[in-house]
Amino acid sequence: ADRIGERSQAESLGVPPGACVEAIDGSVLDPRSTAELVRRFKAMKEAGKQSIMLSMRLPPHVVTMEERVPQATPEGSASLRSLWRFNLDLSKPLGVFFDKECVAERVGEASQAAELGMHPGARVLEVAGEPLTEGTDELVRRIGAAKKAGLNSLSLGVLLPEFVVSFDDRPLPVSAALDIARGIFLVREASPAAVERGIEVGMAVTAVGDEALEGCSAGDMQRLLDVAALPLRVTFRRVPPAEKH
Question: Is residue 239 classed as helix, strand or coil in its secondary structure?
Fold first, then answer.
């Protein structure tokens, strides 16, 4: 095949340029020529055949569907940017000190927020399914209004934080693996040194240096980790607690 027509049956079947037909319905194409292929097609159509089985030899550089290397996906990246939603128990304080933009600066130990899994850097963007547009002052007002209305709980939508850690030496004190089902890289191991810098097993790894990992295979990511210049900046993002594996 020299060229594959756009929107053709061959394109939809994944036939690449350079593929060579070797057999039709199990019968070897002999002589192996386009003229013989056309002659057989015509004979089968005249005989009333509705479909045929072609056996092809693929060019060396083509990777079949079965052999394609799994990669981090756009859907996986989008899932990390979605809001984490949880119900706030209005009978207890949340236990978070926010800045004016509703970004958590401190989370109290043993607080409701800590028990839920909130960390510094998390930003509240939604209250009861509606956008929060006026920052912390609006959050306080809406929580107060919910309490006055006699509600027991209130839904909050939170964007979990992304942060960058710079490493000066190799080997790195952290390793990650591709979660094929979810299409994202997750931290698999974190040494005590990594934990001290806020890295935890189950976090997502979204970039190495300036390279986003969407579309990367495990081998691609490892090459980035191995060859990128030091100090190496790696971007991590927290995963909603209920979704950690």
Answer: coil
Closest by CA position to 238, among listed 205, 215, 197, 192: 205
Give tens-digit pLDDT for 164-198.
Answer: 999 999 899 999 999 999 999 999 999 999 999 99
In the sheet where 130-131 sits, what is the strand order? Answer: 84-89, 153-159, 123-127, 130-131
The reply to whether the predicted model has a pTM over 0.70 is no
Instruction: Please give the Cα distance from 221 to 72 (Å, whole number).
Output: 10
Report H helices in the chain.
9-13, 34-46, 74-81, 112-116, 135-148, 192-196, 218-227
Backbone angles phi, psi at 105, to 5 degrees: -95, -35
Of 135, 140, 143, 121, the closest CA to residue 237 belongs to 121
pLDDT of residue 243: 45
Tokens representing 59 are 């060019």
| Each residue's pLDDT tens digit, 51-76 | 888 888 877 755 555 456 899 999 99
